[in-house]
Design brief:
5-stranded parallel β-sheet; 266 residues; 14 strands; 6-stranded mixed β-sheet
Length: 266
């Protein structure tokens, strides 16, 4: 019997219209009514994740910033936090400045950018969170950021990731949440690390956890969960390691998983 659900947001929980369908919301409500813990595991900021959590009535700790932060929705207590090491952050800031790359940093749940441009505006619209322009951007390199995000063309980001992984070694976790989003966190700031912590927090075995996602950044939590589920619209590399592939985010894939593995077995 599964006792916990950890669900990614973008292209997983929400459809392409950025909405949680009534069918999915109802299925999750029924699961919670039967004692199943439902949480979100997202690369989004905590402030953004709480908007979706509120819609669904989730009063539990949420996994945000790819796993770098686990924070309680009821009282705002931080349960798990891993910031990017400052020496690494400085190197990334310098690298992005030298190569003309758009970099974003997150401090105290505020999104900071060097300048207002289309990349910043599009990201803010996607996450429904405003950004703050900080002209002396390099000063922020020494602040404890939970995530650094580089936005560019997918192929360019693949090259950037390859260049950064070599010198940074095991100090950080580098992944993609979307083809044009390259995200850099503490090496223990993954959804897998956060989910492992949260399961223990609730006294739930990882074998009793279902993790559902669609992208590269979901890999670690699918690997640690008892049932790792990839969406029908997931990247192929995630489908390859998943225990089960459900319908797409536009076809109530979450609803199908809940009905098949939770409601029919509880």
């Amino acid at each position: 019997m599964y006792k916990m659900l950890a669900i990614d947001i973008d292209d997983t929980l929400i459809n392409d219209e950025k909405q949680v369908t009534p069918g999915t919301a109802q299925a999750l409500a029924e699961a919670m009514a039967r004692g199943v813990t439902v949480t979100l595991a997202t690369g989004r900021m905590y402030a953004s994740a709480t908007q979706l959590a509120s819609q669904l009535g989730l009063n539990v700790p949420l996994i945000s910033y790819q796993g770098a932060l686990v924070k309680n929705t009821l009282d705002g207590q931080v349960l798990y936090e891993r910031a990017v090491p400052s020496k690494v952050a400085r190197r990334i800031f310098e690298y992005c400045e030298q190569n003309g790359l758009h970099l974003q940093t997150y401090l105290d749940d505020v999104l900071y950018v060097k300048e207002s441009n289309q990349k910043a505006r599009d990201y803010a619209a996607l996450s429904n969170i405003p950004f703050t322009v900080y002209p002396d951007f390099a000063e922020l390199a020494d602040k404890p950021s939970l995530k650094l995000l580089i936005i560019d063309d997918p192929q360019k980001l693949d090259e950037v990731a390859a260049e950064l992984r070599a010198p940074l070694g095991g100090d950080v976790h580098i992944t993609k949440s979307k083809p044009h989003f390259l995200e850099i966190m503490h090496v223990e700031g993954t959804k897998g690390h956060a989910l492992t912590y949260l399961a223990e927090h609730f006294g739930v075995k990882l074998s009793e956890v279902i993790a559902i996602g669609d992208s590269w950044n979901d890999r670690e939590m699918l690997e640690v969960a008892g049932l790792g589920v990839a969406m029908g619209n997931a990247v192929e590399s995630l489908k390859e390691i998943a225990d089960y592939v459900t319908y797409s985010n536009n076809d109530d894939g979450i609803k199908h998983v809940v009905e098949k593995f939770v409601l029919e077995t509880v």
